[in-house]
């Protein structure tokens, strides 16, 4: 009996302590998502019922018009930032307060990924290997994934595909003609890459750790005091697909990235590479590689999505006759992309070669809009307790 009483008292004490910990944001009058024992706000992630991107996307819309809100990862509080100006503050303006990523890899367990390539000026062999691994993951794997999604989107959107193709044909028809400067003059190619990054970013969010106490102030004057050690979540995928910044976000429209259209929205409504001093180190290399590989391999390709492929191919062949260049040796490939539940296949109809690409769209589900309001105790957002 005594053992049972001790066990019951211990469980009750743990629950009371947990309830106190998950009232952190309520005690500061910050809008927040109610925590559920014992997982906090991320039960669906822990139980593998939804991806991180799906859960964060639901939180994004549950917080309504609030520029920020609180969530709980088990019993640890984390700040969820929605406002692009606050995202800019975290990345750039107050970088000294958020210079650490919110993850840790023990160098003794993984000496390659555990070494932070931003910390040293003199590098050992292990640190050089860590740099190389970081560069490879940031620049090559993401490039391969993105090239697949560019093909996927162009196969579904004939007009952007033809416009891009015409631009590339003006640049050249052979590999030798695609010089560095010429590729960078291909403005529509850059827009296609940026729009694909908006719809299919390589990740769903960024997370920074607060390294010193700071007060963040949103554009509408609301404030939140962030204590040292608090994780700050920046939901990239949700911001990229918010109709407030990108009308009809499910539509592939490279014209969103003309200089005129970019000027109509906040700078950090689009941040596929992060921002500030810790911008993705392989950003330039990745963009150059994407543009060069796509332009040199696809200016003579016509892509369709596999639906009624024979008629589509015939239409494309007819269209090609009106756009042929003076290079009589130039030939065109007809590429068919077919989509199934988990993969999409890229088939070259001229030589019957085939490539299968994992359909990452299954991992980045469309945003789930909901009118459900988060449970919160107050409306004030300026209490610095």
Output the strand order for the largest sheet.
1-2-7-4-3
Task: Kindly provide the radius of gyration, computed on alpha-carbon positions and rounded to a whole number of angstroms.
Answer: 25 Å
Question: Which percent range describes the beta-strand content?
Answer: 5-15%
Number of helices: 13
Outline = elongated
Class derived from helix and strand content: alpha+beta
The residue-averaged pLDDT reads: 76
- Element order: H for helix, E for strand: HHHHEEHEHHHHEEEEHHHEHEEE
Low-pLDDT segments:
308-332, 336-385
- How many E-type strands? 11
Distance between the termini: 42 Å
The percent of residues in helical segments reads 25-40%
What characteristics describe this protein?
elongated, 385 residues, alpha+beta, 13 helices, disordered C terminus, single chain, five-stranded mixed β-sheet, four-stranded mixed β-sheet, 14% strand
């Amino acid at each position: 009996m005594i053992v049972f009483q001790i066990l019951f008292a211990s469980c009750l004490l743990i629950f009371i302590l947990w309830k106190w910990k998950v009232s952190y944001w309520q005690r500061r009058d910050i809008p927040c998502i109610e925590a559920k024992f014992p997982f906090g706000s991320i039960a669906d992630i822990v139980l593998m019922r939804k991806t991180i991107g799906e859960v964060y996307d639901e939180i994004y819309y549950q917080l309504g018009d609030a520029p920020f809100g609180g969530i709980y990862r088990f019993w640890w509080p984390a700040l969820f930032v929605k406002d692009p100006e606050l995202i800019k503050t975290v990345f750039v303006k107050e970088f000294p307060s958020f210079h650490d990523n919110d993850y840790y890899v023990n160098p003794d367990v993984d000496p390659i990924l555990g070494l932070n390539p931003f910390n040293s000026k003199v590098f050992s062999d292990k640190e050089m290997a860590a740099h190389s691994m970081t560069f490879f993951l940031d620049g090559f794997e993401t490039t391969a994934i993105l090239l697949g999604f560019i093909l996927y989107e162009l196969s579904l959107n004939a007009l952007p595909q033809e416009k891009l193709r015409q631009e590339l044909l003006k640049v050249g028809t052979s590999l030798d003609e695609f010089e560095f400067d010429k590729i960078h003059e291909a403005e529509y190619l850059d827009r296609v890459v940026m729009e694909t990054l908006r719809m299919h970013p390589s990740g769903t969010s960024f997370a920074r750790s607060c390294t010193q106490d700071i007060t963040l102030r949103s554009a509408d004057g609301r404030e939140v005091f962030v204590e040292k050690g608090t994780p700050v979540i920046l939901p990239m995928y949700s911001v990229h697909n918010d109709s407030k910044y990108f009308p009809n976000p499910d539509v592939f429209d490279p014209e969103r990235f003309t200089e005129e259209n970019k000027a109509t929205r906040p700078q950090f409504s689009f941040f596929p590479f992060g921002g500030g001093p810790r911008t993705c180190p392989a950003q330039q290399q990745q963009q150059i590689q994407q543009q060069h590989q796509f332009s040199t391999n696809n200016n003579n390709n016509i892509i369709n999505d596999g639906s009624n492929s024979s008629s589509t191919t015939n239409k494309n062949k007819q269209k090609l006759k009106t756009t042929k260049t003076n290079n009589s040796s130039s030939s065109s490939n007809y590429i068919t992309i077919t989509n199934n539940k988990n993969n999409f296949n890229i088939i070259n109809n001229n030589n019957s070669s085939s490539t299968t690409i994992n359909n990452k769209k299954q991992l980045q589900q469309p945003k789930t809009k909901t009118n459900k309001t988060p449970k919160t105790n107050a409306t004030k957002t300026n209490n610095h307790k």
